[in-house]
């Protein structure tokens, strides 16, 4: 598998190391995915916070250090939780191959965010 054109377009403005991990993850993932969002404007982030869809105005999406994905099964977007750790595993393997410090939102103890991946602030401030 490889990333579709729309997903690739949504990687515009995303940090090249995160884009590279995403490309590689798409090749090795057992569960297909699309990129739903990369770089986000301040206005959009503020709207998401207002709507309760995000808790922070300091999102990694604002700087191109985060992406969101959606699982795709048989051509349909799926939000079933069990699909996301399998996608995350592909991202983890891709990040390890490339020596990129990556964080999965699904590992957060509070406000678990399965579709979200970001570069580790410690390595990529
Ligand atoms: Zn996100």
TrEMBL record:
InterPro entries: Peptidase_M15C (IPR039561), Zn_M74/Hedgehog-like (IPR009045). Pfam families: Peptidase_M15_4. This is M15 family metallopeptidase. It comes from Brevundimonas balnearis. Residues 54-119 form the Peptidase M15C domain.
């Amino acid at each position: 598998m490889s990333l579709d054109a729309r997903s690739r377009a949504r990687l515009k403005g995303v940090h090249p190391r995160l884009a590279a991990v995403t490309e590689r993850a798409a090749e090795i993932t057992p569960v297909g995915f699309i990129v739903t969002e990369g770089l986000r404007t301040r206005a959009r982030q503020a709207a998401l916070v207002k709507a309760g869809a995000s808790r922070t105005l300091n999102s990694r999406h604002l700087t191109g250090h985060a992406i969101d994905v959606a699982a795709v099964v048989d051509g349909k977007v799926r939000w079933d939780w069990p699909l996301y750790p399998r996608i995350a595993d592909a991202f983890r393997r891709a990040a390890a191959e490339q020596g990129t410090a990556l964080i999965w939102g699904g590992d957060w103890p509070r406000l678990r965010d399965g579709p979200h991946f970001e570069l580790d602030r410690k390595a990529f401030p």
